């Protein structure tokens, strides 16, 4: 039986292989992070910031207490006011994950007299976001992101 001797070239190969694995994993993670990133909220944040305070004040002046929950296979969206439920026009709604767009869907809401309800079958467990844009009867734009948790 021969005895193995660890030489300098063996140590260099071990180090090279170790760092090669680390670099390959980092490149794979970086590629997947960029590939699945949902994108920007706004194209020009400076322009959006110019009207942010006025838009927020107008939205708060509506007096809506909005909520969104996932119940079984349904997404329930409520706009409550001191005078009862509000029924704004929903212009855009996207239900998806915060981390990627692979599971994004556009819910189709129906008014049931008190809230908007959308059938959303086959939602996986975990955190979901509803990105919503609506317009009040007076023309005020309402934008909000609701964070929800779905448990199976």
CATH third-tier fold name of the domain at 59-150? Immunoglobulin-like
Strand/helix succession: HHHEEEEEEEE
Number of helices: 3
The CA-CA distance between the termini, in Å, is 60 Å
Indicate the low-confidence ranges by residue numbers: none
Q: Can you name the CATH architecture of the domain at 59-150?
A: Sandwich
Average residue-wise pLDDT: 89
Major sheet attributes: 5 strands, antiparallel
Q: How big a fraction of the residues is strand?
A: 25-35%
| SS class | alpha+beta
Number of strands: 8
Work out the radius of gyration. Answer: 25 Å
CA-based shape:
elongated
| Helical percentage | 25-40%
Describe this structure in words.
- With 152 residues, this protein is of the alpha+beta class.
- The chain has a domain at 59-150: Sandwich (Immunoglobulin-like), CATH 2.60.40.1220.
- The chain contains three helices and eight strands; from the N terminus they run H-H-H-E-E-E-E-E-E-E-E.
- It has helices at 8-36, 45-50, 52-61, and strands at residues 65-71, 74-81, 84-85, 89-96, 110-111, 116-119, 126-135, 141-150.
- Strands 1, 2, 3, 5 and 6 form a five-stranded antiparallel sheet that branches.
- Strand 1 (65-71) and strand 2 form a beta hairpin.
- The chain is elongated and about 90 Å long.
- The chain starts with 7 loop residues before the first helix and ends with a strand.
Q: How are the secondary structure elements laid out?
A:
Elements: H1 8-36, H2 45-50, H3 52-61, E1 65-71, E2 74-81, E3 84-85, E4 89-96, E5 110-111, E6 116-119, E7 126-135, E8 141-150
InterPro entries: FixH
Transmembrane segments: 12-34
Keywords: Membrane, Transmembrane, Transmembrane helix
